[in-house]
Amino acid sequence: MSTPEPAQSAQSAQSAQSGHSVSASRPDAAASSQPTGQPVVVPAPGTEPFVSLHTAVVLLAAVVIGLVIATLTVLSGAHPATAAISGLTAAGASTGVLRNLIR
Question: Structure pTM?
Fold first, then answer.
């Protein structure tokens, strides 16, 4: 007489406690009705993030693009105010494009 595997003995012990019979021919049916042991985390109302991940990535990439353009404009010899305006323009123009590209 062989001893059952630990997974089978755990299933039979759980089925004995719950009153359900576990069929050896259909282990998938028994596994779907068994709890996984993982806690279910339900967020409280009003705790959703301020900004979605997609929005944060798009805005961060736009800021980086704006900083690169502003830096290159300053290095080319333009006035810093002109570089700031060109950087802001590049960041604003890239936001719409990045929104469509990053999904």
Answer: 0.56
Cβ within 8 Å of residue 15, ≥6 positions away: 21, 22, 30
Question: Which residues in 41-52 are b (16+ Cβ under 10 Å) and which e?
Answer: eeeeeeeeeeee
- Average pLDDT over the chain reads 79
- Block residue for tokens 């062989």: 2
Check residue 44 and give its pLDDT: 79
Hey, what's the torsion of the CAs at 53, 56, 58, 60, to 10 degrees?
-140
3-state secondary structure of 51: coil
